Amino acid sequence: MSPISFLQNPILWMELMSRLGAHWSSAPDFAYALCARKFQEKSENDINLDLSSVVKFFTGAEPIREETKLLFEKVFVPHGLQKDWFSSTYGMAENVVYISHLHEFRLSRFRPSSGKSLVAVGHRNSLPHAQEIKIVSQETHAEVMDEEIGEIWISGPSITAGYFNKPKLNEEVFKASLQGSNKRFLRTGDLGMFENDYLYICGRAKDLIIVNGVNYYPQDIEDAVSSIANVRPGCVAAFSSNDGTDGDGSTIRSTKYCS
Q1: Distance (Å, rounded) from C-alpha 76 to C-alpha 115?
Q2: Which of 110, 123, 219, 258 is the most core-located residue (most Cβ within 10 A)?
Q3: Contact indicator for 138, 151 with CB cutoff of 8 Å
Q4: What count of Cα atoms within 13 Å lies in the side-chain half-sphere of residue 166?
Q5: CB 250 within 8 A of CB 243
Q6: Taken in order 68, 30, 53, 79, is the CA torsion positive or negative?
Q7: What is 95-204's CATH superfamily?
Q8: pLDDT tens digits for 213-255?
């Protein structure tokens, strides 16, 4: 289904799953939240759904939210959705999309600035064959301890050869090596951690918003703003920008909120 068709009529996704007797589907977190909200707005008597054929729905590509899972279940379990429908995923094009998945819902003990728990997207013991995931300090290139946040590095047979005609960038991104090792890794640019062998994604390194020397993840700011009355959920974006310079020529960094 094209993104435009989905945005025009999010409920069409569930109608097609029901009509075709589909077994699985995959989408970003916002799609599950939007579909559930739009379905709630309509009278359930107007739409007949049978989602009993669905084995799994996969969610990934952006921060996975516990409240989205709970809302989706509340709305669609009465229409045959199985209670173990949820499966989280993590991937990127540079690894031919797939990196890890998890057929269970697990929350971290760690609380970001938003106060909302992170959702696990993988486990050390269920990674694809010959693939490794390391959590690495961006400054020292040394592997960090479990429950410490660092950049996610991966190695394995699915990693692409590099970006077309970008040798300098390829050397930095695709040929990184751990401190004291010659083994090559792909630097994902994602920040994450292992906790009890479960993998959690915290955010993108380049998306961090720095205010007075403190790091903030944009999704945490977006969640906080979305909780304000009369702000449409799912319609907020937070990002840093350079507005100019102050009197001494130093850069002014500010945070923008778009709704």
Answers
A1: 27
A2: 219
A3: yes
A4: 10
A5: no
A6: positive
A7: Luciferase; Domain 3 (2.30.38.10)
A8: 777 877 778 877 877 888 877 778 888 776 654 444 444 444 5
